[in-house]
Amino acid sequence: MERGSDVCSNRRPVEGKIVALVLDVMVILINTSTEILLNMIPRYLLNRSLPLLQELWKKIRGASIPRNWGRCLHFTEYDLASTIFRLSMKQANPAICEIDKIRISIFGNEISNFENFMLKYWENSPFLLSGSSNILEKDNAVFSSLVHSLNPTSTDDVLDSILMELVSCPPLASDELDINCFMNEMNSSLGSPLIYGQDIRVLKARELTAESLKNYVKKEVHFFENGMRKVFIDGDNAQKCKEAFQNGFTVALRGMEFRSAKVAAIAKGLEVLFGQPSVGANLYLTPPGSQGLARHYDDHCVFVWQLFGQKHWTISYSPTSVLPRLYEPLSSLPCSESEKGGGLQLTLNEGDILYIPRGYPHEAHTNTDGSESRNKMFSGFSLHLTLSIEVEPPFEWEGFAHVALHCWHEKGKELSDSVTSSEARTMRILSVFLLHVAIRLTANCNPIFRKACLVAAKLGSAEVLDEPHSETLMLSQKATFWSIMNIINASSNFMEVYKNVAVIQESNDDSLQWMRWLRHLPQDGADDAKIDFSNHLRMWDKLVEFKGNGELEDEFFKTKSKFCRCVVYEDACKMFHMLLDKYRRTRRQYMCGMLSLHSA
């Protein structure tokens, strides 16, 4: 490989064929290996081979590989991308920015500043982190290296780096905890160009002027109408994106945490700071006097970080009484509060950070006058990064309640299985299953259950956390837990829960699919002593069998009372951390693989 065109040439036909054969066999073996086999590859061999494979893939993608090479190799560039991805999963995780530095760069030196934000603003109201623009002047700031690495000579440079140098990042299912399943599905498409709608959008908000509309409305217009077919952003389409930008369209790029090692480090640091499985990062480049996204609200909290230029934001009051869940369909918005004289309006300057909770409608536009911009080349333009704290369902307070119930049930099995009858064990299993459903029904109408559970949040290093006030947030989390236990004990009704399950089963509804993530929690004992969270029909058949004897309702109320009174908070925290580690492991394997492809 290092000899380039000499390999596979007429002068060394035998040697060239051997090298090509080694590459072909290596790609086949690696792409058909399990994670266990990949972990057996010696570290020194990985360190020597991976850079060579990345260089080869780079040349194949750039069509700079000699023609005689192509005749010798029998794998595609996508096969080679899959090989690089698989080998990179074993590489060291992307460097995490020190938690103290991230917290200080955003919230200031004192831990109390972060705790005040969490207790007063987090998931409650928008907040402009004043003074954060000064981070650009700090030599040791977390974000300064990223800002300087994005210091282009023109907006064309930014667009070129987005459109020509990046590859697609296929979505990873939220409850996928086995990277092999993802690889088996995506084996032949890794390394493809950006896919419109999935990785990148080119859009602008256009005002609707129809007389039938009574309210001020803007609608998003996409430059590409992809319909049912995939649109790849390369070649001619990349040039069309540049032309669209000149005509007022915003270029929005998703998944920056998988494309930039610097963004990945920041995202991973925030993930640890907030105790969540992952943090997403999107990049938005907007031309002067334009608006990309129409007024909308998100199902996740965001920190908007203004990198270059300025952008004016309008944030309305939250239209809902409960926080929107991740992945749930978003309801239509009421008329803008800003028309009624309400809401918040502000302008972000370079380095400013704005926090917007999930559920708060917002929109933003650039001004035609960019005279205050630090970089004159960005006069009127805006480049900002959104860091999204996506609270997965298992990591809301509802999820923590499910984890707590699971821990309590498993602990009870250890103490009683040897002395109880088979029928009594089945009754207890059904009662616990129904109590899981009861928690869900209570969470549907109680806002506190949808808030993020922060028991895994790490506020800083061990030295800093020795300060007396550092446990304020953790104590508030424990108090929230016991409040939730009181709500569950007071509100859960057997007949309501039973009828809910009955309606779902009769209508062949998939409304219990929210429960599938519970299968990731460990269960001891034989199969008949376990709750089948994946097969609801099996659980329903057992419920029908035991409902007639009249004892199931009594068992349900006994189970609920014992759980809410005897559950051990610390046990639930331990299991919660174990589940969080499972989620993080798969996401970090994915992140390592995608960053390796982009580093090539």
UniProtKB/TrEMBL annotation:
<feature type="transmembrane region" description="Helical">
    <location>
        <begin position="21"/>
        <end position="41"/>
    </location>
</feature>
<dbReference type="GO" id="GO:0005506">
    <property type="term" value="F:iron ion binding"/>
</dbReference>
<protein>
    <recommendedName>
        <fullName>Bifunctional lysine-specific demethylase and histidyl-hydroxylase</fullName>
        <ecNumber>1.14.11.-</ecNumber>
    </recommendedName>
</protein>
<keyword id="KW-0560">Oxidoreductase</keyword>
<dbReference type="InterPro" id="IPR003347">
    <property type="entry name" value="JmjC_dom"/>
</dbReference>
<keyword id="KW-0812">Transmembrane</keyword>
<dbReference type="InterPro" id="IPR039994">
    <property type="entry name" value="NO66-like"/>
</dbReference>
<dbReference type="GO" id="GO:0005730">
    <property type="term" value="C:nucleolus"/>
</dbReference>
<dbReference type="GO" id="GO:0051864">
    <property type="term" value="F:histone H3K36 demethylase activity"/>
</dbReference>
<keyword id="KW-1133">Transmembrane helix</keyword>
<feature type="domain" description="JmjC">
    <location>
        <begin position="249"/>
        <end position="393"/>
    </location>
</feature>
<comment type="function">
    <text>Oxygenase that can act as both a histone lysine demethylase and a ribosomal histidine hydroxylase.</text>
</comment>
<dbReference type="GO" id="GO:0032453">
    <property type="term" value="F:histone H3K4 demethylase activity"/>
</dbReference>
<keyword id="KW-0804">Transcription</keyword>
<keyword id="KW-0805">Transcription regulation</keyword>
<keyword id="KW-0479">Metal-binding</keyword>
<comment type="similarity">
    <text>Belongs to the ROX family.</text>
</comment>
<dbReference type="Pfam" id="PF08007">
    <property type="entry name" value="JmjC_2"/>
</dbReference>
<keyword id="KW-0408">Iron</keyword>
<keyword id="KW-0539">Nucleus</keyword>
<keyword id="KW-0223">Dioxygenase</keyword>
<keyword id="KW-0472">Membrane</keyword>
